[in-house]
Amino acid sequence: MVLIKYFIFIANFVLNKINYYKYKNNFAMKAITIPTEDLIMSLLRDHLVSYRLVQGLLKAGLDTLNFDLYISETIFRLMGFGSSDEEEKLFEEFLNWSEKVMSIDFLSEDRVEPLNDLRDEIYRKLKREQKLRKLKY
User: Does the reported pTM lie above 0.90?
Assistant: First the structure.
């Protein structure tokens, strides 16, 4: 009886391996490619939403240190900005530009257009700075 159970176990193991190799391409994740500009635009929008949330929590008196997603740092890296004093000043300007998101009414159904407009404005400013520094991504 033990020998039969062992044989069934081995047979199932072998069949599962065969099926895995036969169908693995059906279940494998496909590589997704996204243009860098589209990725940065998406991250900028996410940054603005996150920034508004964190600033709202700050105004409510909560400690937001653990809620920052550091999306802005990722954007700066993708655009090739480093950590020089000049780029630290740019980062501070970037946060000042982001402050405009506080005036967007997020309860309104019309919030998408002003959010995208702000995202586009910030992206243009970052691209201008990038060109001044002759950085590439």
Answer: no
